[in-house]
C-alpha cells in the first residue's frame, strides 16, 4: 500500500458485518421500492392511447440532453429561478455521480476485476468537487425556500381560478407541504453530509492521510475545526459519525425510494417530456384517426402516453399560469391547473392494479381531477402556455382534444353553435353568401385577377375577416392597391375560398375543419401560382402548418415578410417617412406560432416610425382574446377582456401615437378595446398596411402623351 | 313505439338572385338549402322522448323531395333519428301543401307511428298547413303550435301546451295517434357535428316512390293540388325623398315632382 493509496475515504470502517449487511438490505429495499414506483408510472403511461413519434430518437435525445444541461428553458422570464435550479441541478448531479463512483469501485470494479481508482489525487479532487457541489445544492435550495416563503410570487400560489374557496381542491395545501418537504429533505441530506464529513475528520485526526489532506474538503474541514474548538474529541467524533452516518444514509435511501411517487420524479418525467416534445404542438393539431369512434378526449385513457407523461412532467413553476391571457382577466382557466387536475385524475385512476370502469374515467366535470366546460371554453389557444413551459408540456392539444368531445356533445355556447352551423352552410363565419366574398374588389379602380381562371405569381388567401368585416375591407382594399402599384401579379380565389378553418379546428370541430381544409386545398389545386400571401395570421398558420396533412403543400408568407421583401427589392419606396411613436402587437399566430417577429418591426422602422416595445412582446405577446374561436363566444359582461388588458399596457407608454397590429381580428378587437377602456383620442389602432399606405401615398395618375 | 317526424329542406335566397324562366319561383341556382328551422325543434323533441324512454322508441324522419334532400335527412340522422324515408317522383314537382300532405299521409299509413311531428311552418313557403292537412287526410286528432310536450311512450294520450294570444296558455290532452305541429323554442336543438353527419351517411335513407305508397301521378303535382303559384316577384319599392333648402327651393322641387307624376312635362 503506497502513500497515495492510503489517501481515500473510509467506507464501513468500525461497522460490524451485521451493520454492513443491514445497510445493504436497506439499499436493496430502496432500489426495489424505486423500481416498483417506476413500473407503476410506466404502466400508467402505457394505459394511454398509442402514439408513434416521428423523427430520429437520437436527435430527440440529443436535444433533450442539451436542454437539460443548458437550462435555457428554465432561465426564460425567471433567470433567478433558472440560476438557482442550475445550482441545485449541477450540485445534485455531481453529488449523485460522485457517490455512484464509490459504488462503482467498491461493489463492482474491485470485487470483479480488482480495479481500484478511488484514492490519491482522484479522491482529493473528488472531495473538493463534491464539497463545492454541496454548497451549490444547498445555496440553490435556500434561494428556492426564500422564493416560496418570503417572496410570495403569485405564480407559486396554488389557488385556482377555476375553483372557489371551500372546494376540496381549491388551493391544494398538499402541494405546499410536498414542496417544503422536498426542499428540507434535500437540505438536510446536504447539510448532514458536511457534518458527517467533519465528524469523520475529528474522529480520524490522528491519521495524517486523513487530517493532512482535510482542506481538500474545505467545508467539512472548517466544520471539523469548529467542532474541535467546541471540544469534540476523537471518541466523540467516532460516536457522532456513527449515528449520523445512519441518519444521512437512510434519509438518502428514503429519498431515492420516493422519487417515483413524489414531485422528485420530474427528474425523469421532465427529461422524458422534453425528449418527446413536438415543436409544432399548438401550430399543427393532431388529426382524429379514422378508426377512433369517439372524437376527442372523454376519458383519461383517451390521452396518449406522451400526454400522460406531460401531466407528470409539470413542476408547478407557474410560468404558464402567469402567461395565460384568460387567467389574467379572471377567466376560470389556468393551464397549470388543467394539467395538475388531469395529473391527479390519472394518478387516482391509472396507478392501481386494474383500470376502473369507463364511467370512472370521465375527465369532464366539476369533481376533483375533472376539468369543467367553462375552463375549456376559456382557452384562446394562444400558445402562451406551451411556448413558455420549461418542460415541454403541451397544453393546447390537450385542451382542444377535450373540446372535441364537448363539440360532439353540443356542449358549447349557443352563439358558437350558430357560428359553426353558419360556417358549414356558407363557408364563412359572417353568414354572408359565398358570392359576396370578393365584393370588396368592386370598389377598386382595377380588376383583381381570378386565380382559378388565369395563372398568377401570388395567390392571395384573403380570409374571412379581411373579406367581410367592413373595417377590415378597407385595409384589404389598401393592400390590393399596394400590390397593384408594386406591379405584383396577384389573384384571389373569389367564391371558391372558404374560411381557412384555423379557429374552427381550435374550437374542436374537427369534421368541419376537414371539410374547410379539403375545400380550400381543392380550390388552390385549381389555381396556378408560385406563392401564397395572406394578411391573416390565422389562415397563415393553418395553411402553413396544417394543410400539408391534407395534401396542400405550399409556399406561404404573411404579408409582413412579403412587404419587407418588396422594400428590400426596391419595388416599394417610402416617399413620405412617418415619425410616429408606435408600438407593435405581435399576433399570436404570426409571432409565437410562426416566429414572425422581425418582419413587421423591420417594416415599421423602414417607414420611419419610432418603435417602443411593450413589456409583453414577441414570444410573450399578450393574446387579444379572439383566438381559439373565442371571437364567436361572448365574453362575460363586466369582466375585463384580454384586449382591454393589453390596451392598458400600451396606454402606459408615454406619448404613444399608434398601436400597430398586423392581423384582421386584432384590428377589430383592439379598436373596440381602445374605446371601451376610454383611451380613444390618446392614440390610435392601425393596421401596418395603413401605415405603409401613409408612407407611400398613392401615385398621381400618370399623364400619357397623345 | 314509433315517432315519425316530417321534415323539409327549405331554401333561402342567396345574394343577387334571379327568377326561374317561368317566373313562378326563384332560379334554384340562387338558393341556399338547409333543414327547416322548425323541423330542427320537432326532431329534437322526438329524440328527447326517445332518449328519456326506457322502452325502445324509433324516430323516423320523413321528407318529400328530390335527392338533394338527403343532405337534410342526414342531418336528422346525425342528430339521433334512427331511420330516414325520402319520397320522390318527378310528378310531385309543383305540389302544394295539400298534395304533399296526401303523400305524407300515405307514408304515415305505411309506417303506422304513434305520433307524427311536423314543424308549425316552413321558413320558405310559410303555408303552415302541411302538418294539419296530413292529419286531415289521416283523420287523426291534431294540434298546432305546441310549445311544451309531455309524453310517455306507450301512453294512450299526450299532454301538451299551446301559447295563445294575450299571454294565455292552453293545456291539452290528446288521443294518440295524433299529429302535432311543433313551435320554435320548445327545446334546444343539439348541434350535429360534421363528424356525426358524416357517420350518419352509413345509416339508411329509404327512397320510396309514389307507387310504393299506392298513389298515382294524378294525386300529386299541380293536378293533385288545390292551389297553384301564378308568379313570384319583387314588389316595386315605394320611395321617399327629403326635400331640403329654403322654402322657395323646397316649393320649386315639390312642384317639379307633382308635374313629373302628372306627366305634365310632356
Largest sheet report of chain B: 9 strands, mixed
Task: State the low-pLDDT regions of chain B, or none.
Answer: none
Major beta sheet, strand line-up of chain B: 9-8-7-10-6-1-4-5-11
Provide the spatial order of strands within the biggest beta sheet of chain A.
1-3-2-4-5
Helix-strand sequence of chain B: EEEHEHEHEHEEEEHEH
Polypeptide structure, described:
The complex is a heterodimer of chains A (706) and B (266). Chain A is 53% helix and 4% strand. With 706 residues, chain A is mainly alpha-helical. Chain A has a five-stranded parallel beta sheet with strand order 1-3-2-4-5. In chain A, α28 links the parallel β8 and β9. With 266 residues, chain B is an alpha/beta fold. Chain B has six helices and eleven strands. In chain B, the strands form two sheets. A nine-stranded mixed beta sheet of chain B has the order 9-8-7-10-6-1-4-5-11, with helices on both faces. A two-stranded antiparallel ribbon of chain B has the order 2-3. In chain B, β8 and β9 form a beta hairpin.
Task: Please outline the helices and strands.
The complex is a heterodimer of chains A (about 700) and B (about 270).
Chain A: H1 3-6, H2 17-46, H3 57-70, H4 72-75, H5 79-113, H6 120-151, H7 173-203, H8 208-211, H9 218-229, H10 234-258, H11 266-275, H12 305-313, H13 319-323, H14 325-328, H15 335-350, H16 373-377, H17 384-388, H18 395-409, H19 414-426, E1 449-450, E2 458-460, H20 464-468, H21 470-485, E3 490-492, H22 502-507, H23 510-526, E4 531-534, H24 537-546, E5 556-558, H25 559-568, E6 581-584, H26 598-606, E7 610-611, H27 642-651, E8 658-661, H28 664-676, E9 684-687, H29 688-695
Parallel strand pairs in A: 1-3, 2-3, 2-4, 4-5, 6-7, 6-8, 8-9
Chain B: E1 2-6, E2 9-13, E3 31-35, H1 37-52, E4 58-64, H2 70-78, E5 83-87, H3 97-111, E6 115-119, H4 130-138, E7 142-150, E8 157-163, E9 169-175, E10 178-182, H5 194-200, E11 205-208, H6 247-262
Parallel strand pairs in B: 1-4, 1-6, 4-5, 5-11, 6-10, 7-10
Antiparallel strand pairs in B: 2-3, 7-8, 8-9
Helix pairs in contact in B: 2-5, 3-4
